[in-house]
What we know:
The complex is a heterodimer.
Chain A: E1 4-7, E2 10-14, E3 19-25, E4 30-38, E5 44-51, E6 56-59, E7 62-67, E8 72-77, E9 86-94, E10 99-101, E11 105-110
Parallel strand pairs in A: 2-11
Antiparallel strand pairs in A: 1-3, 3-8, 4-5, 4-9, 6-7, 7-8, 9-10, 9-11
Chain B: E1 4-7, E2 10-13, E3 19-25, E4 31-37, E5 43-50, E6 53-57, E7 64-70, E8 73-78, E9 87-94, E10 103-104, E11 108-112
Parallel strand pairs in B: 2-11
Antiparallel strand pairs in B: 1-3, 3-8, 4-5, 4-9, 5-6, 7-8, 9-10, 9-11
Amino acid sequence: KQEVTQIPAALSVPEGENLVLNCSFTDSAIYNLQWFRQDPGKGLTSLLLIQSSQREQTSGRLNASLDKSSGRSTLYIAASQPGDSATYLCAVKGGSYIPTFGRGTSLIVHP
Amino acid sequence: DTAVSQTPKYLVTQMGNDKSIKCEQNLGHDTMYWYKQDSKKFLKIMFSYNNKELIINETVPNRFSPKSPDKAHLNLHINSLELGDSAVYFCASSSGRSSYEQYFGPGTRLTVT
């Protein structure tokens, strides 16, 4: 059964720092990995989707990498801003098309 | 607006009641999902339909019954509600069952008293 772990569980940083959020998964037989952000009381917003055949994806200040063989993905946030404060979730879609989520990293960027 | 929508946004009810949550997407997707997010914010898949066919059913009590009248709609009916059913329920959709990104609705906060 797929298990997804996100480290750290919480992070508090000053504005302007570059950040790395980590996601690891136990079964490397995946279709894709997707990063989301969730603001308090809101739904999930898709940030980046990496297919199993890809190594990385970029969108603005965000860069996500995937190392399927080691079961790891990282989300890099450049020049963090207070508006980046949210919970970041990674989800892996594996065998039988079942999506499995990690428990998230709660990020606070203070001015 | 192009989106995944859910109704109602909030639902407060008593134990033992039966309730339904509705989901609609106008993205032209053929796969829809129901997730439960518990009080610790952990998000877990419950059901998924692809072209109105149930493809994922993840150890959910049979008090929960999904229904997909067409590709754009996926409803969730819950019988005999229990305190432990209190959670936020999210609907999502994607184009295809495997490789495409999921888009989420705003969630329905269910409180059972």
